[in-house]
Amino acid sequence: MNKKGFVEHLKTYAVTYLFIAISVFFIIVSNLDTTYVASQLLLRLNRNAFIVLALIIPIIAGMGINFAITIGAMAAQIGLLLTISWGIKGILGILLAGLITLPLALVFGFLIGRLLNMMKGQETIGSLILGYFANGAYQLLFLFIFGSLIPLSDRVRIVGATGVQNTLNLTGDVGLYKAIDGIWQIPFLTFIRVIGGALLLVSILLFAMKKMKLKSFLTCLVFSGILIGLFLIPKVAGIFDGSRSRVIRVPVVTWVLIGILCLFNTLIMRTKLGQKFRAVGQSQEVANAAGIDVNRTRIIAIMISTVLAGWGQIIFMQSDGIGTFQTYAAHEQVGLYAGAAILVGGASIDRATNLQALVGTFLFHSLFITAQSAASNLFGDSAVGEYFRAFLSYGVIALALVIYAWRGKAALKHGGVDLSERKAKQAA
After folding, report:
1. pLDDT for the residue numbered 14
2. Could you give phi then psi for residue 61, rounded to 5 degrees?
């Protein structure tokens, strides 16, 4: 990489490197037990990764950060509420909630897409406002319509009144707590070795079949070697496997679902629909000239994102460490935190990958875990950590919007629009 390329790399991933530095600093200053930090990080990755990955397709389609995934989360919570009310337990209850979420999220996604098509160029802000508007309708539904016009059982209804209880229990007889996470869990070190070994084997096979270039093959070899070798170091392994009571376990089924979504995001971009997403994201004018129905393509992107976000919210709720369902507040920060996380990973308003989503989730939540303790040690007041969390959430999003606008002006000044249009023609 030459000097110019290195500078461009730093500009692109400046936020990511800044967060890495802050995360390491906070972990050191917080004085928290490393096993606790590692277990909490894994728990938050389990809960949040699927939702963050749901943002990728609208970004590629040129619609910015889809903060309206909050509405997908609302659809999921309606599904969970009905499942609890009907007394369907365990994995069957989760599947039923997902099935109820599907048509609701498709309808909501279609309406969101239609509205965002009317505010082209302002989709990020528009989806944020839509989330706030939908929250009012959600509160009306749960406070007045459920329990009166739509009958509910006493398991969820406020006794002697209409509306849904403020907090619903997912544990015990309800049987939804860790319904997915609890199916199959293995020690973290075993999981890492399996992943590293699988990556190594697949890389060798693809290279032998001449479906992988030498550079990519060597990169995979080095990465899998580091992945396996790092956790063979006794001090590192001890963090995750110190004793039987402290062994950190990975919910295999949850990560299989996350892996399937990563694969889906990759494969759909190789289809004709995926090419349309890219073409529309790079230039709507060129895509339209190539015969692509721009509005329809954008609506499909939002519908897919809304459905995936709904299913991600179900994974989040069943994995929540408390085992409760905050009916009126569980969805409120979904879009904000997911949007901030993917931006921290190096994504932008018009570019995102699976790796950026996963890295961003890791970095963003490492700060959430350590912020309170670090602030308490630095300033003698843990409340500062809460303010810092809010500052980071909104600050990262604001910075991404500023950088996007700055790059757009720079591209226009140096003829970058022509390059974008050429790429769009190739994709179309």
Report:
1. 75
2. -80, 5
